[in-house]
């Protein structure tokens, strides 16, 4: 019976290449703890260190038939665990950058969604107040603002004077300013004032 403990690393690796499980077990006993201490020192994480050592020995056994050791066996193991550690650290950096990018994307997405929602709310509010205008005033107002017809074109379309068109539009704007002023204030309290207020100012300035 072979006393594996008395064999050199070179002799054990020779047996390992032939698929000898006892030789593998002896090599594991000799270097398992040393590799773990080395990996733990660099990673500062027991579980990760344990996993990497396990991966090194699993790979060693899976590839024992094609095992090629150019220097000594200990050097081979340290190179293997070093490469595993570098891969792990590199992966962590990539993962960290990915998480930062993901969080940035989420933050921007939330801000954009919030802005679109507030804009949609304001648009709905304006449309609702327009619908409450007297029928004739509303018709003139919508021909002006939605179809972009001139006072002259509206007057011709409805067979009324340009002065009547101008007066109706001015009256509609006065009503809307009065109505929307209150709701705008509420939205100011609830949400972000500047975005909504700016939109409202542009809305009315553009119609003057």
Q: Count the helices. How many?
A: 8
Helix-and-strand structural type: mainly alpha
Mean of residue pLDDT? 80
Largest sheet composition: none
Task: Please render the helix and strand layout as text.
Blueprint (H helix, E strand, L loop, with lengths): L8 H9 L3 H23 L2 H17 L10 H59 L3 H11 L5 H8 L3 H29 L2 H13 L3
Helix pairs in contact: 1-2, 2-3, 2-4, 3-4, 4-7, 4-8, 5-7, 6-7, 7-8
Structural commentary:
The chain is mainly alpha-helical and 208 residues long. Helices cover 81% and strands 0% of the residues. The protein has eight helices and no strands. Helix 1 (9-17) crosses helix 2 and helix 7 (162-190) runs antiparallel to helix 8 (193-205). The longest helix has 59 residues, at 73-131.
Short note summarizing the structure:
With 208 residues, the chain is mainly alpha-helical. Helix 2 packs across helix 4 and helix 5 crosses helix 7.
């Amino acid at each position: 019976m072979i006393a594996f403990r008395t064999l050199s690393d070179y002799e054990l690796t020779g047996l390992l290449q032939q698929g000898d499980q006892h030789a593998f077990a002896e090599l594991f006993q000799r270097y398992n703890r040393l590799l773990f201490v080395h990996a733990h020192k660099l990673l500062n994480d027991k579980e990760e260190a344990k996993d990497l050592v396990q991966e090194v020995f699993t790979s060693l056994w899976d590839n024992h038939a094609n095992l090629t050791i150019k220097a000594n066996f200990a050097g081979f193991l340290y190179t293997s665990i070093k490469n595993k550690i570098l891969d792990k650290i590199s992966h962590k950096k990539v993962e960290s950058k990915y998480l930062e990018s993901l969080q940035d994307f989420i933050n921007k997405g939330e801000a954009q969604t919030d802005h679109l929602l507030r804009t949609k709310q304001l648009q709905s509010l304006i449309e609702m107040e327009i619908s409450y205008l007297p029928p004739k005033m509303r018709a003139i107002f919508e021909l002006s603002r939605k179809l972009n017809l001139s006072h002259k074109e509206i007057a011709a379309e409805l067979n009324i004077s340009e002065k009547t068109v101008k007066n109706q539009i001015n009256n509609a704007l006065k009503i809307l300013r009065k109505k929307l002023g209150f709701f705008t204030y509420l939205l100011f309290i609830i949400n972000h004032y500047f975005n909504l207020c700016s939109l409202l100012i542009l809305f009315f300035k553009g119609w003057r």
